[in-house]
């Protein structure tokens, strides 16, 4: 290891130049990485709704309605004209309105009022629209112009368009504030005005290389695109900070600069690699999810942290040595006071806090498992957003509604009629458009015009468009999906296909809930194994993993006690992220405690360890906290906002666990922690 680092530092100019070139290439390539904003695209290939969508795309033009468009103050002729305008909007595949289910030439009073009020109330028209997923943004903008400022749009297509147009501007704002805060914290915790810039340069190099290399995935999700770089920066900041502090210690011993850097690298590599590997493994565990958003985010972040590790251990040392003369000219006194007093405070409170922490483990775990959830994207924008206001306006006038599409074999119209009758008998089914409902089972298909027939029947299947008055997700929705599938199964065992936003959410719920135990077990098990191999102790991996896992349970118990539903995707992801990102602090603290404990008694080792590590831990932890909270309070996308809030709050819980609780746990189990490392002649039993 010493030989390798010696070779790297000897060729520091070449190494630095290669990394900067790679970062420049990554910066250019990242613009070529496509971004997918549709959560449903990440359902496993084998789910029923995914298979249904594929068959529907093969059999019928258009697709499943994914937008509702409301326009007020229209007569029926004006509504028909607007329908034509919407249909001609680029990216719009199909528009359904009253004229598709009723003869609009008859007086409104003569129509079926229940059917009429689904599409037209008090001069306000509601259109069901199918938008191409390649044209969400342009199609939604075109429809918004068509209905004017008094109109309203909702649905998954509108939600995804809002994500696409609003997310990146918010991410840039979060990035600016995050970098500014990191600069301030690093300026306070380093001893040269140049060092914060070097740390951020190393982070920037790693982030750009990772962002450009995402091209190997073909495309990335909007979650990865929005949160990936921010999370990579936040979780890998501590690698360079740990190295800088070690370098200052080694340099103070009088060694030449290059030799001091090699010694610092040799001393730091174990802790940094352990920290980095646990973070990488935490993210790689997400790749085991059947819901493919997990692999999308997990692989990108694991790759990013691996690149950050390489950058911190190879590029940053070279950059420090190359700029050392300037850094020395810009030296300043320490702006953060010594942490000895803080260490003595921790010594006094750590045992009571450790006892309280142990008592809290079971309640925290129970509350963590008792949360209520959102599974899909229906709550992705809050009521204060444009999307939320439009949704509320439409639901106030027309109520809650969704549209499912059911494909059944098209040969036997009598069976289709029986199925339609059973479906209409279900609670929450408000209408059906199909061949047997629109034309009648007794009407030969040859009597229908080609355009109408193409929407209702193909060579193999008949298409039933089912209107329902349930939201996109919830207990009523999931029960209705099960009832519709049961009815279709009775008449067409294994031969039907059902799709729609509520159906997709049902399958999403079924998929992600089955992922939780597997992802958590693998993440915890893999981190435990890495700690077991690197620390060569059976007790320490148990202690460290339990410490951080309890911090995770406490973090996710807060929504339960506040009565706030959690996005299940966030719930699933945050456990791996918090474990991987903050177990680093526990590793650093424990390594230093064991090192100090070889020469000092428990009380002195505890105080010195807090003094040695608190600045490094607080530097990284505070940046992770602030970046998470910035994401939480700036992002209009509620899924990303909740991910940020949980990350920021989770970092606080982990910081408190490591700085206030872990010292007491280490001292209370000192014999298990140290094993044979304490020399018999220096062993002192000092009671705290």
Task: Name its key features.
single chain, alpha+beta, Multidrug efflux transporter AcrB transmembrane fold, Alpha-Beta Plaits, 5-stranded antiparallel β-sheet, 24 helices, 13 strands, elongated
Structural write-up:
The protein is α+β, with helices and mostly antiparallel strands and 688 residues long. Among the domains are: 1-32 and 190-335, Multidrug efflux transporter AcrB transmembrane domain (Multidrug efflux transporter AcrB transmembrane fold, Up-down Bundle); 61-160, 2-Layer Sandwich (Alpha-Beta Plaits), CATH 3.30.70; 386-505, Alpha-Beta Plaits. It is 67% helix and 8% strand. It contains 24 helices and 13 strands. The strands form 4 sheets. Strands 2, 3, 4, 5 and 6 form a 5-stranded antiparallel β-sheet that branches. A hairpin with a 2-residue loop joins strand 4 (120-121) and strand 5 (124-131). Helix 22 packs antiparallel against helix 23. The longest helix has 35 residues, at 501-535. It is elongated. 51% of the residues are buried.
